[in-house]
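Box 3.1 A note on notation
Throughout this textbook, protein chains are presented in two layers. The first layer is the amino acid sequence; the second is a token string describing backbone geometry. Keep the layers aligned when reading.
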Amino acid sequence: MTSGEKNERLPDLTRYVDPYIGTGGHGHVFMGANVPFGLVQLGPSSVRQEWDWTSGYHISDSTIIGFSHMHLSGTGIGDLGDINIMPAIGDVTLKRGRLPDPSTGIYSYFNRTTEQVNPGYYAVELERYGVKAELTATKRVGFHKYTFPASTQSKIIVDLENGQCWDRPVETYLVKENDSVISGYRYSSGWANDQKIYFTMLLSRPVKGFMVSDSTTVKEGNELTAKRVYAQLLFDTQTDEPIYLKVALSPVSIANAKQNMRAELSGWDFEQTVLSAQNAWNEELNKIQIETGCEKTKRIFYTAMYHSMIAPSEFCDVDKTYRGTDKNVYIKSTFTNYTTFSLWDTYRAAHPLMTLIHPEKVDDIINTMLHIYQQQGKLPVWHLMGCETDCMIGNPAISVVADAILKGYTGFDWNLAYEAMKNSAMLDERGLKWYKKYGYIPCDKEENEGLSMSMEYAIADWSLAQVAKQLGKAEDYEYFLKRSKAYVHFFDKETGFMRGISSGGKFREGVFNPFESTHRSNDYCEGNAWQYTWLVPHDVEGLVKLFGSKEKFVNKLDSLFIVEGDLGIHASPDISGLIGQYAHGNEPSHHILYLYPYVGESGKAARLIREVMYNLYDDKPEGVCGNEDVGQISAWYILSALGFYQVEPAGGNYIFGSPIVDKAVVKVKNGNTLTIVAHNNSAENKYIRQVRLNGNTYDNYYISHAELEKGGLLEFEMASSPIISGAGRGDIIED
């Protein structure tokens, strides 16, 4: 089968993907054409640059300033939007423009009924210009098809000024090499504070004229370096005449962009490229084939898989040359370099999911992180386009690297990995100085969100400790295991909450309100005491002991899903998807439902897991209950729909919950196949009565990653009541 032929051997699962899911509310997902994990995300960008437009698109909007080649998906901060292309007719003001008057800029309104979108393909008609735009992509090349009306004033605008939200151009360059080749670069600063992207563009027909501008000021010649370069490529067009253009990107150079073009898209067959993109998506989606009588569940599930594979994105050329965090160019690397690491989000489920269904990518992901460590002196925190943003808290990459080691991945240097984890944990930045001195970050030091930071550091320390133990580093094991108990300092036995504590060991003064949350200040990061009290996924037994008994722990946990209170006017909008004070729209809550099985209450977990899957996920634009967070919200659903979830941050014990699909065939490591069957499954029969593995009764409330990646048959007997025979009884925490 060639890349341009439909793979008849696989079912077409792309038909269940609805890219509109998550484009409403605060989902912030990407809309457009791309392939899995590709550098290019080619899609429309709107005029507005507010919080709900961080991806460049929102279902409430009907404006397009052009089709840019790089977008974020699901983030709470906006950036990228690089190399913007806009087909137009007539005189146009070369600015973004102001609502509601399109004549103030390059933008056009569109009617959503003209949109068509499938994985790897996007189309829309621009009302202002009467042009139909169609887009597809390879990993590093955006392919445009613009169908114009008859006009002697048709043009294609190359806009190097406008990015998305925080992004601002620093220096842009464009050159007309000949009448059908345009090349250049865009240097910008925003969330990624030193971003460089190079491009080359091939046109299907020569231009009749060319104009280059510094913003609205036209300059002479075929070449320009300025802060806000625009080019206008002029054409005569006949009715329904298409003009094609291909734009190849490189993080390294124009020459490498040309190399990427030759390697990935040497021809001009647009329809074949669409089919190749669809095949790429379908191959990845078929890593999990589910069976369920509910078509809505299929749409949610496969759209979640789609969203989970937009990033991390390849950030290198076809020969694996890339630009590092230190801004040096590394020629023909031995690994595929990646970017867009939203690690505070994705260490919890997205990366564990990758170890299960994308084992071929794990070593490259870890090698990327280790080279980032070598180039910037620490593992990535929130890495974007070769830049460390230091966004969010903790040391989440430590858990990701540790997880790969503990699951037996060997395609990277374990000694270097250990060095990277340990050195990152021993820095003095981001509150670690106080954390090392006191065993926690005191509330009377200069760090905001000290409680949340400490608890995230503790999670990373536990992960590092497990690797130290495996490598026989006993002293390090004891040291980091002790640090992983940092959460103990914050527990207030009188209130039963985690609370900020001073350097003198006293709880924060003033009236304590467990509901209140103040964004970016006080003790909690995007949350409150109700939500952060449970952020101990690495030591559930220790958390239970703090409450004094299993009964008190369960009673408090039950209350989380019932109590209601005012978060306050300064609360982060990320605290969303509420059931009581459980906030599924934000990551610190994601493991909480799976705490119940640790204390023999699997039935309560099943009921709540189903409630989340039924009520907080939907096949509508508002179907994501918060920021999609670069695949994390989706990964939670995928794993939970299969019937399990990894709670501990590293090592791969997956806690049983409540499978929503009747059957799943999962392609795992080494070509193995894991078949999951939920017998008698239904909305009523949500409780696991018994688990069998390869025909044998399985008596634990969890299953290891090692067992899952062997493949085989995992069976759940489902029932209408939470009466469990065998399943969920092994190793339950007792008083």
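Residues 724-729 have pLDDT under 50 and may be disordered. DSSP finds 18 helices and 39 strands in the chain.
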